[in-house]
Amino acid sequence: MSNLRTVEIKAFVPARDFELSKRFYQDLGFVMASDSDGIAYFHHGVKVTPVEQQPWRMRDFVVMDPSGVLWRIAQNTD
Asked: With helix as H, strand as E and coil as C, how does the chain read?
């Protein structure tokens, strides 16, 4: 995954356990820019699949956060 270049990631998702979700994003390496009024910018139960080349010309992997949100992170390939 070290050759993937991230342009921008913003997550606006509800959380059943706000403190657990904040720790999840911090464990992934996100830096918390704000934490007020129940909103935070950005390990327990984290699931990550291997990077795979898909038939639709994308390389991707999946991350499942502790609140059950599925993230499919992909890169276009030729």
From this structure: CCCCCCCCCCCCCCCCCHHHHHHHHHHCCCCCCCEECCEECCCCCCEECCCEEECCCEEEEEEECCCCCEEEEEEECC
* Structure token digits, residue 7: 């342009």
**Cα–Cα distance, 62 to 52 (Å, whole number):** 10
Higher pLDDT residue, 46 or 74? 74
pLDDT in tens, 16-67: 888 888 888 787 777 777 777 666 656 445 677 889 999 999 999 888 877 7
For the whole model, what pTM was predicted? 0.48
Report domain extents, the chain.
Answer: 18-76
Cα separation, 2 vs 67, whole angstroms: 26
Q: Looking up tokens 């999840």, which residue turns up?
A: 24
